[in-house]
Design goal:
The protein has 355 residues and is α/β, with parallel strands linked by helices. Helix content is 25%, strand content 23%. The longest helix is centred in the middle third of the chain and has 15 residues, at 228-242.
Length: 355
């Protein structure tokens, strides 16, 4: 355990964690909603610092990031706990684990950066559970990676207060933010008492106050966040507030955690959502968690040329000019691109790191 940041004393003797909008108020021995930020004595500690629920080498497309070094490998890891309580959580065995239940692997920041380098990973991703709750650890790892020329990625729900947002996301090279729905009711009822506005604020900050490349993911849950009206409102907000060039991924839900009675997302729903977003002015809209090469490939927004062909997590065709523009009409493709695809494919390689 290590001492944490983002807390302050209160007049009644409690301390308040202000990392995320829950702003948990704790007495000695108590833990926050996330369970991993705890009060010990007169300060707060991060109980998961240097501990992981596992390490795996993934394709970057699995994060999902389609406009950030396509075809490259990323060293992925998470810890335990979460500051949301989503009934549909697809990683609930990690995010709902108590602090030490799933922490089988230990590694400090330098060790993670060294391992990523040894495995020729272009980046390290903080994923599986939200890096917001282990911000101090994630920032330390990002600093160590930067020293080795390795980039870092935050896969996050964006539920974070301004200071933590600035420090955590500001340390990253890329992010994928879950925009889980576009109604306050969904956030409050389905994600455990959270609110929509802080997530929208995080997206606006990323676009207008940072240099972080970011993309958005929305997991479509039948009957809960997949109506034409909600999808249209979401797409209109994205175009108006973030611009048309932020990639947006619509992913398929599978029954899990406390929503085992909800059916899986039909492929037709993903395709409908994609068409609604494109009609609203979004230029790069993708489908995920299903096989849909057309919905997962990247075309030039101006001339329609196929630039990056994908089949789930595998990159096939990769046709960009050296400056990252379309070879036919020379329109720049927004994102971070290399001269050639990384060629990692769809492999998943679990690894172990020990001190």
């Amino acid at each position: 355990m290590t001492k944490a940041r983002y807390w302050r004393p209160l007049p009644d003797g409690r301390i308040e964690c202000y990392l995320c909008p829950r702003e948990c108020r704790l007495r000695d021995g108590q833990r926050g909603f996330c369970f991993v930020r705890a009060r010990e004595g007169d300060s707060m500690v991060l109980t998961t610092d240097g501990r992981s629920s596992g390490f795996c080498i993934d394709p970057i497309e699995k994060k999902p990031l389609n406009h950030f070094l396509p075809g490259t490998s990323v060293l992925s890891f998470g810890t335990a706990g979460c500051n949301l309580g989503c009934q549909f959580c697809q990683n609930w065995d990690i995010s709902k684990a108590r602090a030490m239940d799933r922490l089988m692997d230990a590694a400090d920041a330098a060790q993670i950066a060294r391992t990523a380098s040894e495995w020729d990973c272009e980046s390290v991703a903080f994923t599986y559970n939200d890096p917001v709750i282990f911000a101090e650890y994630a920032i330390d790892v990002a600093d160590a990676c930067r020293e080795r020329g390795i980039r870092t990625v935050a896969v996050s729900a964006g539920y974070v207060n301004p200071e933590g947002r600035r420090d955590l996301y500001g340390a990253m090279d890329a992010a994928n933010i879950d925009l889980k729905a576009f109604t306050e009711e969904f956030y409050f009822r389905i994600t455990g008492g959270a609110h929509l506005r802080p997530v929208l604020d995080a997206l606006v900050w990323l676009k207008h106050s940072s240099d972080v490349w970011f993309e958005i993911t929305t997991l479509l849950i039948p009957g809960h966040n997949d109506s034409d009206a909600e999808l249209g409102a979401m797409a209109a907000w994205i175009v108006a507030e973030l611009g048309p060039d932020v990639p947006h991924h619509f992913s398929a839900f599978h029954p899990d955690h406390r929503m085992r009675d909800v059916p899986p997302t039909p492929r037709a729903t993903l395709r409908r959502a994609r068409q609604i977003a494109l009609a609203a002015g979004e230029r790069y809209v993708y489908t995920g968690n299903v096989r849909d090469p057309e919905g997962q490939s990247t075309r030039c927004a101006v001339c329609g040329e196929l630039l990056i062909g994908r089949d789930r997590y595998s990159v096939g065709r990769y046709r960009l000019r050296p400056d990252g523009s379309c070879p036919r009409c020379r329109t720049p493709l927004p994102g971070v691109f290399a001269a050639a695809s990384g060629g990692f494919g769809s492999r998943r390689i679990p690894i172990s790191i020990t001190r």
